[in-house]
Amino acid sequence: MADFLLVHGSCHGAWCWRDLIPELEAMGHIARAIDLPSHGSDPTPISEVTLDSCRDAILSAATPDTIIVGHSWGGYPISAAAEANPKAMRALIYLSAYVPHDGVSMVEMRRRGPAQTIVDAVEKSADGLSYTVHPDCVQALFYHDCVPEIVPFAFARLCPQAIRPQDTPLPVGEKFRKVPKAYIRSTDDRTVPTDYQAQMSEFIPADLRRTIDSSHSAFFSHPRKLAEILTELERKL
């Protein structure tokens, strides 16, 4: 049995793990999800969200026995948490996620990718502090292989994403490197190119890398399969 802490990506919240949590619980695990600052039920104003505050939310919810799963942009704050306190967690699992290079922001990591999938799909707020995904692009970017019910469920809950934490360089060093890590790559991802996921995860041992034939949102499209993969990885971490 493992204790999984689930950390969402851009514009999402704890709600996106709705279907995965019961699958993990049925396999005997503890599964918890949090809202990062300004997401879901968290009341933090977007103007106050920082990479450090996202990191601290994760550290507040983690224990030394926790396996932290970060999806998409969530790969950055979970990495920041590992760099700040590697003893606060058991391991990290990246799910279709960005893995930082030392001193590089997530925005810059995205720009270094082989394809820019979201540039034309997002709209920046008038004050320049956040962005949202254009309604016409939501399904194609995130949920193209999900059952029809998912799109209205998710669309009603998507929220603006603060830009500052994603545009903040993240230094990672020895403390980050000492935390065990695994990676789950989505092979039909239209948000983070699957080839780029493979490139970012090359430093992780081969026996701790997995693939899932899914869109960017495997927690909705293949929750049972994802739970099985997480269980398999947990036994190796």
TrEMBL record:
Sequence intervals crossing the membrane: none
Key words, A-Z: Hydrolase
Family annotation (SUPFAM superfamilies): alpha/beta-Hydrolases
A family per Pfam: Abhydrolase_6
Domain AB hydrolase-1 per the UniProt entry, residue ranges: 4-228
GO MF annotations in UniProt: hydrolase activity
InterPro entries documented for this protein: AB_hydrolase_1 (IPR000073), AB_hydrolase_fold (IPR029058), Sec-Metab_Biosynth_Hydrolase (IPR052897)
Protein name: Alpha/beta fold hydrolase
Annotated organism of origin: Ruegeria haliotis
